[in-house]
Structure prediction request, 163 residues.
Amino acid sequence: MKLIEALKQIKELQRKASDLRDKLSVESPVYSNQPKQVAEWIQAHSDILKEILRLRVAIQKTNLETPVTISLGGKDVTKTIAEWVHRRRDLANMEASVWKQLTDRGLKEGTIKQSNDQLVEVKIVRCYEPETRDTMVFQYEAEPTTIDAKLEIVNAVTDLIET
Prediction:
């Protein structure tokens, strides 16, 4: 079974479990042997949850053990699927946000007049290279889309590691 198949199967199993829970909310008996039917539904629901758990653990194991190489900023970077998921979820955006903090906040160099009518020369001293900042912001903002594209392929071709 491929990763994508397991992910889709979990969604289908969750739907089936929900359907069974809905059936249990019937207040008046509609089956000839209602207690037996209810017991079967509860057992089926339990079996479905066990299968969801088995699939989730297999997905986690696969994600932790499968290395994936993605080209970022002209460099090939290899991480496990699990690491890429975390980069995609929030870490790449956090990296971008720290680079976005590097700014001169619209200040301009030049001469300004102070309140006492004296002219003062304003020179901005940046403790970073604006070109590097822009490159890094672009790279980190693009990273989630790059990860998504690669993981779509990986999920379709990677076999689930089952124990």
